[in-house]
Structures are given as C-alpha cells and as structure tokens.
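Is alpha-D-glucopyranose placement plausible here? Inputs below.
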Amino acid sequence: MPNPSLSVLCVASECFPLIKTGGLADVVGALPLALERIGVKVTVFLPGYPDVLSGLTDKRTLVRLKDFPKGQARLVTGKTITGLKIIALDAPELFSFSGNPYQTQSGEDRADNAYKFSLFSKIAADIANGDIGRKRYDVLHAHDWQTGLAAVYLHLRGITDIKTIFTIHNLAFQGVFPNSILSEICLPESYMSRDGLEYWDKVSFLKGGVVYSDHITTVSPTYALEIQSDAEGMGFGGLLRSKAQNLSGILNGIDIDVWNPQTDTEIPHPYSAANLSGKKKNKAALQKAMGLRVAPNAPLFSVISRLTTQKGLDLLADLTDQIVENGGQLILLGSGDSEIENTFRNAEQKHPSEISVTIGYNEPLAHKIQAGSDAILIPSRFEPCGLTQLCAMRYGTVPIVGRVGGLSDTIIDAGPMALASGVATGVQFSPINLHMFSAAIRRSILHYATPKIWNKMVENCLAQDVSWEHSAQLYKVLYASSL
Ligand code: ADP
Ligand code: GLC
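Reply from A.M.:
I modeled the complex. Tokens:
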C-alpha cells in the first residue's frame, strides 16, 4: 500500500515556466503537478537564477545559510504561477547571471559549473535530510548531471533511508571535470575509484547519480534499452548494464494545460478535434506572419529544436530543395550550431516565399508553429524521449521522426498495416541518414496528398493521450516501492 503522505524533493537545474533550455524544464514543470494530483507531495529545488527568483509568487525566506562557502546565501520558498512548490537557492555569487545557465554567450561551458552544481547538490541532500528547511523527505528525485552528486552527498553521510531516484534525460551530457575538483567540493579521494565517480581519469557527476542512487530512470523504454548497449551507451553502456535491475524507462508526458489548442492564448484561432477549421486558419495566419506564400494545400513542415548533431537537422539542410520542389514549405525555429544555423539561413534566402527560418528561442512562436503547421520534422540521431512530437500530436500536427528512443515509442509509423487498421500517427524512418529521411519526406508528401489517409493520421494524433497521467502513476509506484 503506497504511503499516503509520500513526500518528494525534486532536484533540477531547470523548471518551466521559470527557467528553460529544453525538455528537462518541461518535465520538471509538469511531472510534479501530475504527482500532486495523485496525492504525492512534491517540492522542487532549483538554483536561484534571477528569472527563478523573480518568477516566484508568495516568496519568502525559509532560512539564511550561515556557513555557505561562497558569499551570502539563503533558501527562498515560493510558488510558480502554475502552482508548483519551489525552494530556490539564492546565492548571488553563484547564480546571479542571466542567459544560458551552463554556457557563456560565446558557447564556452561556465568555469564554475562543477563547483556551483556540486554545492547545489550538497544543499539538496541537506534539505532532503531535514538539516535545513523544516522537514525531511521520503524521496530525493534528481535530474541529469547537474544534480548527480546529491545522492553522493547522502552516501557520504551514510544516509540510507531517503530513497534516491536519478533520471537521465540525456546521456550525452555527463558532467565531466578534472579530478582536482574533489577536494574543492568536499568529497574524499576514495570517491575517485572505478566503482565511484572516476571516469577516464576524470570525475563524472552523471556517474555519481548512476552509481549512488537507488534507482535510475530514463525518459522512454526504448532509450533505457539503447543506453545499455556499447554502441549507444556513450561510454556508460557497461555500467548501465550492470544496473539493469534498477534501471527503467518511463515515458515523458507534456502539460496538456500549457499545450491545449482549445485554450492556447498564443494562437490566433483556437480549435479542437471536433472542429479543425481553426487549424486551417492558423496555418494561413502563420504562413502570412512568416512571409510565406499563403497556400492552404501546400504541406507545411516545421522544426522547433535545438540545432545540434543530436537532432539530425544537418540532414534536413540538404533536403530543403526537395521539399520546395515537391510543393512543400518549411518553417524552422531553433538555435545552436552556427554552421547548421547558416545552412538554413541560406535555404531561406534561396526560397524566401517557401522557407522561413527564425534563429533564436521563442516560446509563443513555438505554439503558433505547432498550431499552424501540417507536420513536424524530428530526424534525431538519438532522442531520449522528445517532447515536440507530443506537443505536435496534441495540436493535430503529424510527426515525421527518426525511429530512435522515445520517438519510436510514441509514434506509430504509417506503414501498410498501420494504415490498413487506421492507427498511424506519423512517419518513422531508420536508419537515420539522408536517404531514408528523404524517402520519409517523400512518403509524407504522398500521404498529405491523400486526404483520407492524412486526415485519419491527424485525427489519431489528436486522440493520443500525451498527458502525464499514466507516467506519474509509474513514478508514484517507484517512489513508494521498498520505502
Ligand atoms: P530537448 O530537450 O532535447 O531539446 P525536447 O523535445 O525534449 O528536446 O524538448 C524541447 C523543448 O524545448 C520543447 O518544449 C520545445 O518546444 C522547446 N524548444 C526547443 N527549441 C525551441 C525554440 N527555439 N524556441 C522555443 N521553444 C523551443
Ligand atoms: C532531453 C532529451 C529529450 C527529452 C528531454 C526531457 O533534453 O534530449 O529527448 O525529451 O530531455 O526528458
């Protein structure tokens, strides 16, 4: 019988709507709300970036941290406008800067990343244990490398009665630092071992989370299997295989209130599955706003993404002519690798009435694109879960995706069998290369030209449950097991 008053300290470096660079923030902003709805008490612990502190309501000082090693610090409690309970570490010497939390404007990792995230993780362990703040927690749930040391600090103190869960959102980010960091962050040399934090003669914070947590989750069942292989384990395959008994994949959901085509204030024409006329109007409005030819029957493809090798968008850069030559259009919103950015800028210059490229991060525009486009392109080389395909389905926008990770778990390919039984929700391709991606785009354009097929896919997308409801239950069971 699950403990009715189960309390969880969720520790992360991002949380929508306060601070976001990607899907991690969406998960940390939405999963705790879904857990609260099923009776789990969740508090989210975050670094006190200016946007975090200014975004809190009912803000007050919980405690001033007397022996903090880096200037003044206090814990601040408050709520997000979405109703999430937050504790923030207000430590101006560590966190009072704006912009990307991990990198400087020139794209370099911030020099004090190791120090500040280890201190943040140490305070997380203290809060979980009730040393600071008012209560002790049953579970410490930490996300990604920035918080990997929280379980290590509990281990250092011999605390074993707080259950530790560590979620890997992306194995590519491993938090690797020179081993000289250990003395700075108050961890004894004994942790520098193969069974500890040592990773190719350096220290990995991600490894800390994997080795010292009671259970590891990742964000889709397929990614949980992929990362246990040498080919896709990014150096962690063997270690993760050895943890197989305590490793599971739980699919992400999205916040279906934030992403709701019926109530979305960012889109000009709200709509629902019952009446899709608004979607057509949003398409026309989007084409107009982005300077494209207003063409109701042109398949409008979109991209909303970080522009990195992970996302495979360098492949798309070679296929823009193909899309245009086949009567399609493309709207891209994203930022990242400057080489990829430039190739898309060039494509836009070549086809100004068919391709629109916006380099940058723009939340309202992301909603307008989801609502107005016909299909979203996600040719990822690997994808732990992916959220944009879930948002797309919620808006009746058909995902065209690489068959990897969470993309393979969430999309049903429009192959002959799925079409015959009327269950397709998108187009998948594999392996991830130019040839197969090109064929997938061709196949999508053909399906688009057959309204019976396309409309059925749109209908199926809109009928998918992309909420957190089911997965929150799985986390609840995991938290409660063996407590
Ligand atoms: P990842 O976390 O790997 O970047 P996900 O698909 O899990 O990929 O999550 C990406 C999130 O970030 C989604 O909410 C998506 O809408 C958002 N996003 C990505 N790029 C942009 C952008 N340029 N502008 C606005 N939102 C973006
Ligand atoms: C990471 C992954 C993405 C996942 C997100 C949230 O950023 O790249 O696939 O959806 O985390 O878990």
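Short version: The chain has two domains: 7-253+468-482, 277-463.
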